[in-house]
Amino acid sequence: MPSFSFAQAKTYLAPFVSSQGPSDPLVANCINDINERFVTSGQWKGNRFLMSFTPGFDSVNNWYYIDTPVGVESILKVIAVDQGAMNGEIADILSDWYPFSENGLGWIAYNYCGDTELIRMGNVPGTADTQRYRIVGKYPEDRTFYAIVRRGYVPLINDGDLLIPSNRNAYRYGAQAWQYENTYELERAQVYWNLAYQCLNEATQAFEEGEQAQIDIQFKAFSPHSIQNLI
Question: How far apart are alpha carbons 89 and 49 in whole angstroms?
Answer without folding.
Answer: 19
